[in-house]
Amino acid sequence: MTTLKITDLHVKVKEEPEHPEILKGVNLTVSTGEIHALMGPNGNGKSTLAETIMGNPKYLVTQGDITIDGESIKDLGVDERARAGLFLGMQYPAEIAGVTNAEFIRAAINARRPEDDQISIMKFLKELDAAMDFLKMPEDMADRYLNQGFSGGEKKRNEILQMMMIKPKFGLLDEIDSGLDIDALRIVANGVNKMRSPEFGTLMITHYQRLLDYIVPDFVHVMKDGEIIETGGAELAKELEKTGYEHLKAGDANA
């Protein structure tokens, strides 16, 4: 079991140090074998948390730590965090001209492997074909430039394809369900569920119970005003669907 631990995390935007903190003391532990859902109103720090864990240089950690099995990753770059086992499924995936989808994924896989143990072309293509078939992606998407000309749903499906191929220890999924119709949502959820194992843990940011109908979380956390204010099981998300977030306030955390 591998454990990702966030301890008393305070974060600001690096170029706006005079502005208030976005994260105000977040505590969260995610272990492999677990699926965590992070919910809460817009603009309250959920995406900031995911991007800070992944090492986005836009954000400045002013207090607290992020560790994997007790080793701090707070000062590591994005590439080093990826090699340590983190993957971020982005809310708005970037388009990169000149680099095909297949080239990008193979390079990402090999970056996490020793130079004398790079994945073979045949093994890579076999795994890629199987994953794309599972996600019902057309074959030509492998040869198209990364996310260029992809629909919103294709971009989200492509993030899951990358995660399935790279096989990280932790997937940080930032609103992977936004903009998906019901069929695409089911396919994306199937991809996440297929990875569920003792070697993989997930932190999913979502606003909607409908995703959690397909990916049943072990834990649901509610973030408001830069803090996690409540934690519960899958039933908490169903309760929030009925009551909303307005009645919750800092100090309500029960975990």
Automatic annotation (TrEMBL):
Transmembrane segments: none annotated. Residues 4-250 form the ABC transporter domain. SUPFAM superfamilies: P-loop containing nucleoside triphosphate hydrolases. One of its GO terms (molecular function) is ATP binding. Belongs to the ABC transporter superfamily. Ycf16 family. PANTHER family: ABC TRANSPORTER I FAMILY MEMBER 6, CHLOROPLASTIC. This is Fe-S cluster assembly ABC-type transport system, ATPase component. It comes from Lacticaseibacillus manihotivorans DSM 13343 = JCM 12514. The lineage of its organism: Bacteria, Bacillati, Bacillota, Bacilli, Lactobacillales.
